[in-house]
Amino acid sequence: MEQVQPQVAMRSVSGRLAAPMAAHPSVMRLHELDGLRGILALLVVSYHMYGPLPLVHAAFAGHAAILTQAWYAVDVFFLMSGFVMMHVYGKTFEERPSLATFRLFMRARFARLYPVHLAALTLMLIVMLPFLAHTAGLFSWHGRYSLGAFAASLLMLHGPWVEYRSWNYPAWSISAEWHAYLLFPAMWLLARRAAGARAVLLLACCTLIPFAVYLMDAPSERYPTNGVVLLARAIPLFFGGMLLYRLHHLNRIRWRGGAAAVCVAATVALLCSDAAPAAVLLAPCLVLSALSKNWFQSLLRSKPLLFLGKISYSLYMTHALVEMFFVEATLRAASRYLHAELNAGLAVSFGLWLAGVVLALALGYVAWRWLEEPARRWLMKRSDAVARA
Fold it and tell me: Which of 88, 315, 44 is nearest to 181 (CA)?
């Protein structure tokens, strides 16, 4: 069970204190989804860490192509996020469908997302400012490392409303998720009316929409991370996760025997770049497999994967710092001061990639242990104090 968080006492119209409402409802924690989230976060880290290492990229493309398909991890993130939000907050919205409930929901989501986002963004600005201070682009409204893009990132608007990746580039997904949170009450109203065949049909549509976007194969990016089209990727998958919860919770849909088949089918699709977009159609089955009693669930509940799941958000949000300020910086420093091209040999490049992954894991743990959790608890206590005032 999750820890019961402090309660918020809601005032009635008469001014008297109504029954307290949990700041974070007490629900059974879905440990298997933590484990799955950990695997997917590590996939994203592994993918980004070889960005400046073309030999490692080529090696993975030839022998472990699934490591080149990290977009799929984020799609499953969106789906799981909708599922978990329905799991944690669905009953609260059912019992107290009010603006006060929505404010409480948004405060909790802000406390969860923003501290690590702000810290990573600020650290990136501090480190890069000496190199950008004398460039005209810094003081522009447009441009990857412009103050305009920084402001959009601070407001978590940079995903859909900025046409390019900026500053802490993995953060595009939390911008998209923030928009999904803003729409949560409307999606909850739709999801609560869906059950059985209607929910299955809607869920299928929710995966077909991003699938259609991927088949368009836009010149800039097949799997969009920026621009309004991003919402056609993130929002349907988030809503699909909410519908999946309805099917799992009300209709008791399970996937006990098909876990291996789903994992194999998704892997086969991801191994072929032409067929890779079809993997998004299997994402709901992958999540159902994790939630069913089988070998896959047992694997996801193992201690190493639960640890990865615990630090997954901090790991995801800080690993770009390692890629930029360790991997890329090491390559530049070796070339400038040692006249050595570390990209010339696969063994050295692979060692640098592996060191980057390990360092990202260490930084992710530090950020989770001393930033994410303490900041979230502090913000929730402040939120409770405001609500009682």
Answer: 88
Q: What is the pTM of this model?
A: 0.89
Q: What is the C-alpha to C-alpha distance for residues 100 and 118, in angstroms, rounded to an integer?
A: 26
DSSP letter for each residue of 349-364: HHHHHHHHHHHHHHHH
What pLDDT, on the 0 to 100 scale, is given for residue 138? 72
Distance, CA of 367 to CA of 138 (rounded, Å): 28
Catalogue the long-range contacts made by 357-361 (C-beta closer than 8 Å, 24 or more residues apart).
Answer: 357/42, 357/45, 357/46, 357/49, 359/322, 359/326, 360/45, 360/49, 360/315, 360/318, 360/319, 360/322, 360/323, 361/45, 361/311, 361/315
pLDDT single digits (tens) 183-236: 999 999 999 888 888 888 999 999 999 999 998 876 667 898 999 999 999 999
Q: Round to whole Å and give the CA distance between 185 and 105.
A: 10
What integer pLDDT is reported at residue 24 of this predicted model? 60
Nearest 10 degrees: Cα torsion 223, 229, 231, 235? -60
Cα distance between residue 117 and residue 14, in whole Å? 40
Block residue for tokens 């911008």? 175
The answer to whether 259 and 300 have CB atoms below 8 angstroms apart is: no
Structure tokens at 119: 């810290």
Q: Which parts of the chain register pLDDT below 50?
A: 1-20
